[in-house]
Amino acid sequence: MNAPVNPKKLIKGATGDWEIVIGMEIHAQVTSQAKLFSGASTAFGGDPNSHVSLVDAAMPGMLPVINEECVRQAIRTGLGLKAQINLRSTFDRKNYFYPDLPQGYQISQYKSPIVGEGEVIVDVPETGETITVRIERLHLEQDAGKSIHDLHPTMSFVDLNRSGVALMEIVSKPDLRSADEARAYVTKLRTILRYLGTCDGDMEKGNLRADVNVSVRRPGEEFGTRCEIKNVNSIRFIGQAIEYEARRQIAILEDGGTIEQETRLYDPGKGETRSMRSKEEAHDYRYFPDPDLLPLEFDQAYVDELARHLPELPDEKKARFMADYGLTPYDAGVLVAERASADFFEEVAKGRDGKAAANWIINELFGRLNKEGKDISASPVSAAQLGAIIDLIGEGVISGKIAKDLFEIVFTEGGDPREIVEKRGMKQVTDTGAIEKAVDEIIAANPDKVEQAKAKPTLLGWFVGQTMKATGGKANPQALNEILKKKLGIE
Ligand code: ADP
Ligand code: MG
């Protein structure tokens, strides 16, 4: 409660500083072929109501049968969150009426979830800090269908394709203190889910969405009353919703008012949150154990087996990249953010200088891909091609400057870097005779500069530039420097 507060995270109000407190409930669609309690397909984008079994439509007499794959994915996610795995958990009915919920209840886990407490380590780019966000729980539940109100002037439609699809609800403790931290947390969580292959993290399709709980308090004081912003479906909007909501609450409190606990919606068009329902209107879900489902039980050996086959996760990969390749925490963090870029890096770095490989990927390749709006998986320059470019520099065949031209050629035209260097005469001139000849000509043409350089050795740079120009940038920089110093009599 009295942990030191970073003043940069505080919001200045008219009456003093305020601290934001955020906790999130993330809904992540489980990657599986079939739904949580039926064999219907989870494929996205089918014709309305084409992926609906009798169970999903809640026909009388239908019974749910749990999909083992969804259970496996929830356990694997729990392991990835370094969380307690509960060998026994139960399913409950959460009762409410809505046209897109044919059962009249959602099957969820209430009192005893499949996964308990865990944690996520988060690097926050804006502050350079690393924070630990504690996970409260992860439970399995069904998704609802979708109401469509804008296809007909007087009627609404219901599409049940999503009905019954498995979701993992991942609940954090109220450990986040700024919009930056909240965005970084969701980004990191999504990275972990993608590494595990348990959720594709596609927020545009609604496969990952967040309920964002926001309150404000005076630094060090008790938590304030929170408002919950429902179903925010982009990382940018999560940040915007928090900033707006915190300022709204501060304005009310500074005006002598109190915060009412309520559910709100974020409107990205207006950049504001709006009340959806107050605490009084909150649903009474009348939770009770689902009589159609036995408790979910498995043994520790099953969990251990899943743990053994977990892929290397981003935190471990980052630590390994730092230890094995000498990368900075920042560079390692950037590379492991996506599994594809981490794999690309390792392919380039194998048997080469890791730092050089990281530099080329982060500074040149990422920049160039960004410009084209391309993903690393669609990179026109392969790991083998980039490796060859780095080798050519290492062997002294081309200079670093020419290497950038070569990279651009490979990026736009493709081809074998070695052949391109050969064919287009891009080789560095290491033949000292040829360099000397070029230097001699420049010295002869610029006697005044030669005099100045003797008094002011920094003018050497001017001669380097002239010789590079004369040799089309191909003079070996080291050889050139030595020759120039000798000829100009500079030590
Ligand atoms: P409920 O069961 O009513 O949804 P929980 O206690 O499970 O409430 O909390 C739901 C989410 O709200 C969690 O992510 C939690 O971290 C967050 N939360 C709880 N209290 C606060 C608070 N005062 N300010 C911000 N977030 C909070
Ligand atoms: Mg909740």
UniProtKB/TrEMBL annotation:
Keywords: ATP-binding, Ligase, Nucleotide-binding, Protein biosynthesis. SMART domains: GatB_Yqey. InterPro entries: Asn/Gln-tRNA_amidoTrfase_suB/E, Asn/Gln-tRNA_Trfase_suB/E_cat, Asn/Gln_amidotransferase, Asn/Gln_tRNA_amidoTrase-B-like, GatB, GatB_C_1, GatB_Yqey_C_2, Gln-tRNA_amidoTrfase_suB_CS. It catalyses: L-glutamyl-tRNA(Gln) + L-glutamine + ATP + H2O = L-glutaminyl-tRNA(Gln) + L-glutamate + ADP + phosphate + H(+); L-aspartyl-tRNA(Asn) + L-glutamine + ATP + H2O = L-asparaginyl-tRNA(Asn) + L-glutamate + ADP + phosphate + 2 H(+). Residues 343-488 form the Asn/Gln amidotransferase domain. Its EC number is 6.3.5.-. It is an enzyme of class 6 (ligase). The keyword Protein biosynthesis applies. Belongs to the GatB/GatE family. GatB subfamily. Heterotrimer of A, B and C subunits. HAMAP family: GatB. Allows the formation of correctly charged Asn-tRNA(Asn) or Gln-tRNA(Gln) through the transamidation of misacylated Asp-tRNA(Asn) or Glu-tRNA(Gln) in organisms which lack either or both of asparaginyl-tRNA or glutaminyl-tRNA synthetases. The reaction takes place in the presence of glutamine and ATP through an activated phospho-Asp-tRNA(Asn) or phospho-Glu-tRNA(Gln). This is Aspartyl/glutamyl-tRNA(Asn/Gln) amidotransferase subunit B. The gene is gatB.
